[in-house]
Amino acid sequence: xxxxxxxxxxxxxxxxxxxxxxxxxxxxxxxxxxxxxxxxxxxxxxxxxxxxxxxxxxxxxxxxxxxxxxxxxxxxxxxxxxxxxxxxxxxxxxxxxxxxxxxxxxxxxxxxxxxxxxxxxxxxxxxxxxxxxxxxxxxxxxxxxxxxxxxxxxxxxxxxxxxxxxxxxxxxxxxxxxxxxxxxxxxxxxxxxxxxxxxxxxxxxxxxxxxxxxxxxxxxxxxxxxxxxxxxxxxxxxxxxxxxxxxxxxxxxxxxxxxxxxxxxxxxxxxxxxxxxxxxxxxxxxxxxxxxxxxxxxxxxxxxxxxxxxxxxxxxxxxxxxxxxxxxxxxxxxxxxxxxxxxxxxxxxxxxxxxxxxxxxxxxxxxxxxxxxxxxxxxxxxxxxxxxxxxxxxxxxxxxxxxxxxxxxxxxxxxxxxxxxxxxxxxxxxxxxxxxxxxxxxxxxxxxxxxxxxxxxxxxxxxxxxxxxxxxxxxxxxxxxxxxxxxxx
Length: 489
Known about the structure:
This protein is of the alpha+beta class. It has helices at about 5-20, 25-30, 50-60, 65-85, 130-195, 200-235, 260-270, 270-295, 365-430, 435-470, 475; strands at about 90-100, 110-120, 300-310, 320-325, 330-335, 345-355. The protein has a domain at about 5-75 and about 135-275 and about 370-475: Outer membrane efflux proteins (OEP) (Up-down Bundle), CATH 1.20.1600. Helices cover about 60% and strands about 15% of the residues. Strands 1-2-5-4-3-6 form a six-stranded antiparallel beta sheet. The radius of gyration is 39 Å and the shape is elongated.
């Protein structure tokens, strides 16, 4: 038996049984005939042309959560760009002016200005600026995984919301059928009461059944409205028409592979693990920097050449360079005075400056704190890996549970279809009424809806597993049909 839409089933079978047809004919019963016992029903149905699910997937790319994830990733990219600029070649132009009078008594005021051009570049591998670039690169990699995970989470939420909307629509269809059947039963009861075949209490009971069915129908209608509001909250808009086509079941996105393979893929791609690993790498870099700071004093080597002195005491045109071994930054500077100094003296000056703390140094404490940070980061990596592994194994079991329930749902549909055929046969033999056929048809509708809901639960569980293993690619889902599926037949 094919997985027909509950709406089509009610229109084709229930309406014919309750409203106009004197009895279910042979062709109508053939529509609900079960498949041969040896032919298994497929897990997923063929994907039709573009419909409501495609519209929802396209609208998801403009949802607030999707845009927020994009902005978060863009922020990480800008941080990397900023770190690269700070670690690149920096050029700075400056100017200074002075006015002096020597000696104080009888001297003349003398003014001069100097134009400078400075350049700096981190060259040593342990430079904090270069380490900042490496940390920002790890941040971008983690942000990319976070972006993919956020999109996957939104897609899984859309899967659940779409399944909820389909379930609410099916419940409304079933409620309409129950109202129709209860109305028929009440009409029969009134006729029997007129003939004196029923008591007043039985008639009131039938009337209460109709009223309860009508109240259930109102609840089902409100549930449909609530389900659409949930989609609107997720997407930021409602892209569906007033009466959407919800016949498309959710595709099965269960990733292929055994449990060990799925766990390995999740450990390699889940953002929680990669973020913990990036934090560990930052902690290791901080420990290495603290160890270097504890061993290496603040050491700077510099050289200056040019007009180092003059009769007025001011320097002339000079070129200088320096290398700070702690920060790993190589600097150069060119100074050109606007006025030539009197009697300049040219030469070269080499200097080496070291600063060694004797009392009150915190380098040892900083190093111990950095080592503790490394240990904490390593524990966080282990915790993240264990959490991801448990999550994947739990979702694998959920998929297996939903697939196991799918077999029983199909069996109930076959049993309900046989009951409809039996009721029709009894009606043809004069042993049953049209109400018996209608009740059997209603039971078949319920079984069909239960099967449809179970198929959706399989789809939701498969999408959740694909999200847990980082195999869910929301961008591919927005491409034209057919949607990708990795599910087992």
